[in-house]
Every structure is written in C-alpha cells, then in structure tokens.
Design a protein that fits this description.
The protein has about 400 residues and is α/β, with parallel strands linked by helices. The protein has two domains: about 200 residues, 2-Layer Sandwich (Nucleotidyltransferase, domain 5), CATH 3.30.420.40; about 180 residues, ATPase, nucleotide binding domain (Nucleotidyltransferase, domain 5). The protein contains 13 helices and 14 strands. The strands form three sheets. The protein has a seven-stranded mixed beta sheet with strand order 13-7-4-1-2-3-14, sandwiched between helices. A five-stranded mixed beta sheet has the order 10-9-8-11-12, with helices on both faces. Strands 5-6 form a two-stranded antiparallel sheet. The longest helix is centred in the first third of the chain and has 24 residues. It catalyses: 1,6-anhydro-N-acetyl-beta-muramate + ATP + H2O = N-acetyl-D-muramate 6-phosphate + ADP + H(+). It comes from Streptomyces alkaliterrae.
Length: about 400
C-alpha cells in the first residue's frame, strides 16, 4: 500500500506529509520505501487561532468547531500536495494524526486526548480514505495514548541500550530493552521497549523567545541567545522540582502542564535576563534527557525533531551525557524531519491490516488494540484480510 502519513506536532509550525510504500515482505517483516516529504507552514492566522485554543487559554465550543474545520481543510490541502507530488497521483490511504489541543492527564493516569483536524475534510480534498484519531483507543484501554513513536522505534533501534529521542515541544525517549515482554529472546518476539515523555523541550523555550521578542519570533535560531546566557541555578533547581519528573513510566505530558503560565509562575523576582532564561531552559532539557539516559543505560542515542537544529541544546546534551554516542536518526535510516510522519503512515498501515499497533510497554495500556477511526473516501472501503503475525523487523528503503 502507498500511505501518506500526515502530522503537525506540539510546535505547531508546519504540517508534514510523508509518502511511503509499505508491504508485509515476510512473516514478521515490513518493508518501508520512503518516497518523499511535503512540509507546509501553518498560515499565520490559523496558527494564531490554534495558539489561542491551547492551555492555559479557554475557548468556546464555536471556536473549537471553527478550528476543527480550518485544520481539516489545511491538512487536506497538505495531503493533496503530497498526493500530487511524491505520491505521483496515487495512494491508498491517508493517515492523519491531527493537531493535539488537549491531552487530559491527571498524575499518572491519562483520561482523554483531543486532536482536531476533521478527517472528512481530508477525505473530501483527496478522495482517499483516512485513518485518524489514533491515540484515543489506547487511552480507552488504560494507556497514555503516547508515546506512539515507540511502535516505530521498537523496529528501528539496533539492539539493547540503543535509544531514540525526539526533541519537539516535548522531549520523548524510547529505549530498546534486552528481552521481550514475556522474557523470551528479542528475536522471537516483538522487540521490547521502554518509552515515555521526559519533559519539556521547545514548549518552554519557544514561549520564552516569544516573550523576549514581543511575539515577533518563537525560535532561538541555533540556540544563539541561550549560548550567550548563563544558567540560573536557583531557577533550574526550582524547575527540576516538578512532581512529573518523579512519576515512573509509563507517563505522558504536554502543553496542558508545560504552558506559558507554568513558566511565569516559577520565575523569581527579579526575573533573569532573557538570555539567562533561555540558557536555563536549555539546561533543563539537557539535564532531564541526560539523567534518563543514565537511568536506562543508554549507549547510543538517535535524535530527531526540531531540537536538532538548536546547536546549543545539542551541545549541552552531549556535555551532560558524555558517555553516550549521540547522532541523528539518519543513522538508523530515517531522516529526522520525516520520522513522525512516517510513524503515522506505519500505524495506519497496521490498522487497516487488522494489526494492533499500540506499544503497551510504553503506553501502559491493558492490552494491544487496533488504533484509529476510518473515514471512507469516494469509493467504498475495501480492507485486506487481517495479518496475524505482528511485525518484528522493519526494512527501510529509499525510492
């Protein structure tokens, strides 16, 4: 099947559509042939409307309705561009993550999750069937609904001690474990992983830049301002004292917790300079990730996400985790910008083949479940016969 994986993340700066051909090439093996990526920036007015709906803001049902429609139309436009471009006018399914506007977590328990971007608009724009709402079923089964990227990481990571880090709005980590969940050798079972949201990355950094520039920018390009600043150790200690960090995995978080008000409430009087604040927030993320790498005995770390372009953050991470080999995800065959969009293409492919795709060891769900809801395209849905054997290996190719 040719799948188009569609994603907009917690940084909500663009929507990415990855086109890939997937097939069950052998028992327990999937071949993924990537055909290219289309990335489209959010229209400024749509992004502003989205930001107004995120915590700690409160919005009306009418606002959410309009936002759901506008996001669906935008995603439909991006999917149509991918269909006409790297898909060469032919695809079987579109898989849309949608835009998270709320992830309802209370302590260690997730109760619900809401992604907007109505799938009907995507189906109408492309004529193709759509898999959407991929997180809710895992939450209904007692899971966190995140991090679903562990499903891809389990197939990508070369062996025990290897980890995958995504630096988006939130930093999430996946670590390959030595054995399967049932204690059998990893080669005889689906690879076992530990995965969870470590803490904030761009979520707080971008907000601090927006304050410093009166909204003119949300990115500290390359981490240049953070590099000029000095870490405020008192503020860093205060930030590290968040109860979330003491929760054991599985756990997930988002901008519902790490929102602009969260940071404002923790600033001392007088507050640090903007450069010192950015240096401190950079150190916070580097410290959290380095501590997690030590706790889980990570030897090799493959990084993806927008945080890769923050040279200061990467330098501080390498300094704090000096015994870890840190490279980008290209080293395991996946370009960093494509990774999450390819993930959702894979999850949708598994769903339409009847294969549960939630990584229960990562999300904490009671059992494996089929993810997502199906929206027909212009023709009746035709699903293949279910595949019985879960994937244990992913072969990556480039078109």
């Amino acid at each position: 099947m040719r799948m188009i994986g569609l994603l907009s993340g917690t940084s909500h700066d663009a929507a990415d559509a990855a086109v890939t051909d997937l097939e069950f090439s052998a028992p327990g093996e999937i071949t993924m042939r990537s055909r290219g990526l289309v990335s489209t920036p959010f229209p400024p007015d749509l992004r502003a409307e989205l930001l107004a709906a995120l915590p700690p803001g409160t919005v009306s049902a009418g606002h959410l309705c309009r936002l759901d429609t506008r996001l669906g139309r935008f995603f439909g436009t991006v999917a149509a561009r991918a269909l006409a471009g790297p898909a060469d006018g032919r695809a079987d399914w579109i898989v849309s993550h949608g835009q998270t506007v709320h992830h309802w977590v209370d302590g260690a328990r997730a109760h619900g999750t809401l992604q907007l971007g109505a799938a009907a608009w995507i189906a109408e724009a492309t004529g193709l069937p759509v898999v959407s709402d991929l997180r809710s079923r895992d939450v209904a089964a007692g899971g966190q609904g995140a991090p679903l990227v562990a499903a891809l990481d389990a197939l990508l990571l070369p062996g025990p001690g290897h980890g995958a880090l995504n630096l988006g709005g939130i930093a999430n980590l996946t670590v390959r474990l030595p054995t399967g969940d049932d204690g059998t050798a990893a080669s005889h079972a689906a690879p076992a992983v530990l995965a969870y949201d470590v803490g904030p990355a761009g979520a707080l950094l971008d907000e601090a830049v927006a304050w410093a520039t009166n909204g003119e920018s949300r990115i500290d390009a390359g981490g240049a301002r953070a590099a000029r600043g000095t870490v405020d150790r008192t503020l860093l200690t205060r930030l590290l004292d968040d109860p979330y960090y003491r929760l054991p995995p599985p756990k997930s978080t988002g901008k519902e917790h790490f929102h602009p008000g969260y940071l404002r409430d923790r600033l001392p009087e007088p507050p640090p300079t903007w450069d010192d604040l950015l240096a401190t927030l950079t150190e916070l993320t580097a410290s959290l990730v380095a501590d997690a790498c030590r706790a889980h005995r990570v030897s090799d770390l493959y990084v993806s996400g927008g945080g890769l372009r923050n040279h200061r953050l990467m330098a501080r991470l390498r300094a704090r985790a000096a015994d870890v080999r840190i490279v980008d995800s290209t080293a395991v065959g996946v370009p960093p910008q494509e990774k999450e969009a390819l993930l959702f293409a894979l999850l949708g492919f598994l769903t339409v083949h009847g294969v549960p795709a939630n990584p229960v060891a990562a999300t904490g769900a009671r059992r494996p479940v089929l993810l997502g809801s199906l929206t027909p395209g212009r023709t009746p849905l035709r699903l293949p016969e279910p595949v019985v054997e879960p994937p244990r290996r992913l072969v990556l190719l480039r078109a």
